[in-house]
């Protein structure tokens, strides 16, 4: 029986020795796992920071768009005012030009009399100012178009950055979910290995227990038969007398 117990102890110790290599492998895997964890966590955190930092150019594009549109609105107001002024000047110029179709020495405007030379000189000045104003309006219209184009470009850039940011957020979320899944699978691997080792120990202990049961049965078989020898009756009488009271 002592030999069987000794065998069980030796078997368990042997199993521990055999599995020591597994422990080393597991330790190495755990270290690699920890390093991988730190590297992956760092990369995910770094990617999240970069994606979140896109808020800065997005806000900048929005502000630039707002500035361009505000300036475009101001230019548009000027264009409308200048066009009204231009329309008034055109009416005045056309009225004077119509009057000059009649060849006469003097002309009367607003209760005042002017010579033809004075009228022609005044008409030339008015027409020059009118052309300058028209050129200003055309320049403002070009500037207005450029402002609107710049604002639209800023809007498109903002939408593009926002879409890209959303895509990257989704990619990071998928990456985190995948990492958590892999972490879960790795933890499950460790649990399965431990259960395998325990199952092997349990099997050895069952084998040892079976052998102990067999040894016990053999030992009991040797004392199963009781031989009645001389003096047994006296012994029984003594026992009966002892426990009869």
Explain how this protein is built.
- This protein is mainly alpha-helical.
- It has a single domain (2-220), classed as Orthogonal Bundle (Helix Hairpins).
- The protein is 88% helix and 3% strand.
- The chain has a two-stranded antiparallel ribbon with strand order 1-2.
- Strand 1 and strand 2 form a beta hairpin.
- The chain starts with a helix and ends with a helix.
Shape: rod-shaped
Coarse structural class: mainly alpha
Give a short account of the largest sheet.
2 strands, antiparallel
Strand order of the largest sheet: 1-2
Write the CATH architecture name.
Answer: Orthogonal Bundle
Count of domain modules: 1
The total of helices stands at: 4
The percent of residues in helical segments reads over 70%
Contiguous runs where pLDDT drops below 50 for at least 5 residues: none
Q: From the 3D structure, determine the CATH topology.
A: Helix Hairpins
Q: What is the end-to-end distance?
A: 42 Å
Please count the beta strands (DSSP E, at least 2 residues each).
2
């Amino acid at each position: 029986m002592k030999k069987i117990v000794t065998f069980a102890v030796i078997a368990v110790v042997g199993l521990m020795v055999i599995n020591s290599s597994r422990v080393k492998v597991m330790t190495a895997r755990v270290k690699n796992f920890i390093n991988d964890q730190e590297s992956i966590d760092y990369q995910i955190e770094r990617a999240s920071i970069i994606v979140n930092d896109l808020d800065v150019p997005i806000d900048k594009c929005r502000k630039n768009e707002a500035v361009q549109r505000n300036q475009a609105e101001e230019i548009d107001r000027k264009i409308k005012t200048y066009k009204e002024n231009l329309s008034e000047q055109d009416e005045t110029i056309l009225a004077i030009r119509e009057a000059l179709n009649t060849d006469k020495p003097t002309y009367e405007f607003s209760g005042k009399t002017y010579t033809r030379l004075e009228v022609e000189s005044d008409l030339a000045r008015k027409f020059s100012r009118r052309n300058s104003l028209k050129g200003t309006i055309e320049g403002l219209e070009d500037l207005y178009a450029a402002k609107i184009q710049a604002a639209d470009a800023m809007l498109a850039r903002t939408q593009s950055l926002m879409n890209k940011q959303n895509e990257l957020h989704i990619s990071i979320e998928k990456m985190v979910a995948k990492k958590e899944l892999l972490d879960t699978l790795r933890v499950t691997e460790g649990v399965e290995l431990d259960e395998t080792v325990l199952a092997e120990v349990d099997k050895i202990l069952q084998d040892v227990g079976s052998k102990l049961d067999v040894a016990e049965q053999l030992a009991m078989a040797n004392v199963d038969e009781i031989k009645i020898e001389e003096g047994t009756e006296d012994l029984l009488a003594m026992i009966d007398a002892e426990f009869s009271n």
